[in-house]
């Protein structure tokens, strides 16, 4: 049973709508179209809203050929202030013209009421696609990288960052073709002013500087995108999924970065003022040196040789995975780099050699 959701005050409807009514067949009326609920959808357990797939119903006097067939309906729970806040933030983000008009973000359709929005429907997410060394997958990776890096450029120009790049937030369609679509979704939980968020980003995607107490900025996004792809291609290579205790998740994740990039200098406890961070860096140094499971992780070049991928993709990931945020390239630089151009070229020409 869903919680009650109240509509905006309007001349047409002052009544509350019980979310249990959002069963298949229920119709929501928006500004542009109406939406007939098809089915509820399951997220990745981090979403704060309920999600539904809905069929778009074209108005009788609307002869537009661009009316989409499907939409995604996102409903915040009024009993959960965080859910309501995230939905409101997502709507506010979409009110920014640069984001509303950008093809790299999922398209916003309708504000149905103050706790319900309608968004573009895409078929799946990167989390639901398995990495395979095929031309389709390499074309998909190219499209994902372009969309995510373009989203970084737009957000940085607006003074924002996305703190939640992860496979479940990368929305996809036409994945088994040479012309896939990739877009960034779930902006409400992710987009914040640059430099305002600490201790953020999922563990596997978290940039080294975030672990060391710095704020999330533009360079942190670049690391997150590359780390996301590396973790998707080589599951478990980053992050805390196999950490023996939640109390050492930070240290465990840092140790993995240290194993992949041995030149990363983790501060000693004596060089850190914060008492919690002292324990974390001490644990990270110890884990990277002494834990057998982590000792099995080789430096980046050797580790990525364990999985089949084009050298151009390996070079591109290496370009982005620079441990120092001051030396890490910007998203705009990556998009214009020879490494990105080389990878994009082989995916279009089909001249892929691992």
Automatic annotation (TrEMBL):
It comes from the Eukaryota. GO terms for molecular function: ATP binding; protein serine/threonine kinase activity. GO terms for cellular component: cytoplasm; nucleus. Transmembrane segments: none annotated. Residues 13-340 form the Protein kinase domain. GO terms for biological process: mitotic DNA damage checkpoint signaling. This is Protein kinase domain-containing protein. It comes from Aspergillus saccharolyticus JOP 1030-1. The lineage of its organism: Eukaryota, Fungi, Dikarya, Ascomycota, Pezizomycotina.
């Amino acid at each position: 049973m869903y919680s009650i959701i109240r509509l905006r005050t309007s001349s047409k409807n002052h009544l509350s709508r019980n979310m249990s009514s959002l069963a298949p067949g229920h119709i929501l009326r928006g500004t542009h179209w109406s939406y007939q609920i098809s089915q509820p959808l399951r997220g990745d357990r981090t979403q704060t809203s309920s999600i539904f797939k809905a069929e778009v119903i074209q108005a009788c006097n609307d002869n537009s050929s661009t009316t989409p067939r499907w939409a995604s309906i996102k409903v915040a729970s009024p009993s959960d202030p965080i859910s309501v806040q995230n939905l409101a933030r997502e709507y506010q983000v979409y009110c920014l013209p640069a984001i509303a008009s950008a093809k790299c973000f999922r398209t916003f359709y309708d504000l149905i009421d103050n706790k319900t929005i309608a968004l573009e429907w895409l078929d799946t997410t990167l989390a639901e696609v398995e990495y395979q060394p095929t031309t389709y997958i390499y074309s998909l990776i190219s499209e994902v990288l372009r969309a995510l890096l373009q989203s970084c450029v737009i957000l940085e120009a607006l003074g924002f960052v996305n703190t939640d790049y992860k496979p479940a937030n990368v929305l996809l369609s036409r994945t088994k073709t040479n012309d896939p679509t990739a877009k960034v979704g779930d902006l409400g939980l992710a987009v914040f002013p640059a430099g305002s968020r600490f201790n953020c980003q999922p563990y596997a995607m978290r940039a080294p500087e975030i672990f060391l107490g710095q704020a999330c900025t533009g360079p942190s996004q670049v690391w997150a995108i590359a780390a996301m792809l590396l973790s998707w291609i080589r599951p478990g290579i980053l992050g805390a999924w196999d950490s023996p205790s939640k109390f050492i998740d930070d240290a465990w994740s840092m140790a993995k970065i240290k194993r992949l990039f041995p030149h990363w200098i983790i501060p000693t406890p004596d060089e850190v003022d914060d008492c919690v961070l002292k324990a974390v860096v001490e644990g990270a140094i110890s884990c990277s040196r002494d834990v057998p499971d982590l000792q099995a992780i080789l430096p980046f070049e050797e580790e990525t040789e364990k999985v089949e991928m084009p050298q151009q993709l390996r070079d591109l990931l290496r370009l982005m995975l620079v441990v120092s945020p001051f030396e890490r390239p910007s998203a705009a630089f990556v998009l214009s780099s020879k490494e990105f151009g080389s990878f994009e070229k082989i995916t279009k020409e089909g001249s892929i050699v691992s």
